[in-house]
# Entry
Amino acid sequence: MTILIRGAAILGKDSADILIDGHTIREIGSVNNDADRVIDANGLIALPGLVDLHSHLREPGGEGSETILSGSRAAAAGGFTTVHAMANTNPVADTAELVDLVADRGRQAGYVQVRPIGAVTRGLAGEQLADIGGMARSAAAVTVFSDDGKCVGDSLLMRRALEYVSTFGGVIAQHAQDPRLTIDAVVNEGGVSSELGLRGWPSVAEESIIARDVLLAEYVGARLHVCHVSTAGSVDVIRWAKKRGISVTAEVTPHHLVLTDDRALAYDPIFKVNPPLRTSEDVEELRRAVADGTIDIVATDHAPHASSTKDCTWHDASFGMVGLESALSVVQHTLVDSGHIDWPDVARILSVTPARIGRVGGYATPLAVGSPANLTLVDPTTSESWSTNRLHGGSTNSPFLGITLPGKVVSTIFLGTETVSDGALVAPEIVRNT
Amino acid sequence: MRHLISTRDLSAERAIALLDTAIDMVDVRSRDVKKLPTLRGKTVANVFFEDSTRTRLSFEAAALALSADVTTFTTQGSSVSKGESLKDTLQTLEAMGADFIVLRHSHSGVASTVANNKWVDARIINAGDGTHEHPTQALLDAFTMRSRLRGVDARGMDLAGISVVIVGDILHSRVARSNAFLLTTLGATVTLAAPQTLLPREIDGWGVTVVSTLDDALESQPDVVMTLRVQKERMSSGFFPSESEFSTLWGMNDSRLRRLPSTSIVMHPGPMNRGLEISGSVADSPQSTVADQVSNGVAMRMSVLYTLMGDSR
# Structure
């Protein structure tokens, strides 16, 4: 099977044709060959297939809100070809058997590569290490370990985890949240929490854990990745750590790049998320931090929830928002259109670097001849108010419904197979059979 | 005005109208026939997911005085003990014919969520939501201040020039929030006195002054000192070292009362911890308005029901 993409702006720059042969990019330039399928990409930007380091696919145990198949479809619709599935499933992904099951089901779905993340501690209980070596040496070859949803709060346990994971060349992705400083916390601590009478989640609860963890990482010589950085103070700590040469990487979510805590003022639980939405000063600093490289990547923290856990009071609602489908549009809106970064940087923060952090092969050089054919074609010129018809996962808890965002994924190609074609998801049986 | 959720939503004009109507309701309550027919054939459902006998009885008395039928639903925690959601519980009550739902819940924002999402058609009166607001308490407090300091027929008047100190656990107090918002709207000068552990952060927008101790606050000779109940669970969770230290620095006692002008009043929303935030002798002094507040509560809640009824016609 050959696919010829005609006239795409490569990383938003010069226009060229891309010839895909089987699983591989065969030729880039002015291509004269015929092909089994020709895609007219005039006006579209070609990006490498996107890589998400942080999503919740909920399977096993949470199939009422998402499955590996439905989450894979949401990912493909958003231009992703690889997603990392967080470990907080039920049962928890803390053994080789579980992570292999997740990877297998991802392969069966066929829309994206599903890379399981292993738990740091058994059952996410924060007491003893999970089967880290077993998961690292499993067929799924886990490289990223995280108790995401919970912080590895105990300092000694975190030290041991950093040391032990480094034995296998892996990385700890820390959910930085001091548990004691955030008991029952449900919204950013500040003027909004004061007015609403809701328990505040102070910025220092994130910043103090990051400060501790970068020092631990330096001391034991391990790699640390910080999940969903949400405050300006955290950016300062990470900037300091990088200057010092500490091996730390950091991610920010799309929603923390645009939404602020005043969205909570009407107690609409669609905006309840952990870490919470912060202030406009934080948002501005997070954007600058992506632009200057302090924050390495954007990761979605895609967190599907059934409507019953969002159509309820703020207190009763679950934390989290879906984000795979809208991530690229939010990045275009908050970082590209605002002039912070350019399209080649988008390839870096949404594909090259997340793949490097997760040790995912095939993404080192975006859109290079001979590389695996993972790519995304985007129309950056459209703009529309988001509605549920843009969502393709098992849940619709998007904070962007009713908000106008630019850009649309027109085509996603995963290892030479179209998963999104002419702006529409390809049917599961067709994806599976090719 | 369809619902009463927050004093934040009230304009000065609207608030004064509610206070003025309460004067009429006080008159009704002093007559031989202490009833109006306004809500005949209407049902007021008191839905209390958090125990509060005095507030429930006050709303009940107000509804009965307006000739409404009253149904009461009380449960500790929530009927969610059987797995039923708040939404289902309220829709069930409405299906049984509730025109007004007086809602008390231990979680902040519940009344807003019910009203914003239009889970029910009934008019919602927030009777206290978590540590957020308790708007009828603030209204009855404002009414009590206005009557005591401006005279019984203070019709049409706001609270400009009146200085109010609110002392104690501001952070967790829905009474403090609702009062701070309402009293500033009505033109009063509001000072909060509390340890830093019991003050909310970033409240510049509230238009209030913050001082550390009650003695600091009393230097300005305030017209009103509003004490707040210290919840039992705060006493053991490290917000202050001991009850005696709290009482020493933020308790309203005789010596502090003597430093106030004889026209100043001391308020408490009840139930009181005598000897902690307010001494027994202050609570029983002529300058205490504790009993007035309870009595005015019924008239004020009649005014709220009456006004919501009228506005929805």
Remarks:
- Chain B has two domains: 7-133+294-312, 135-290.
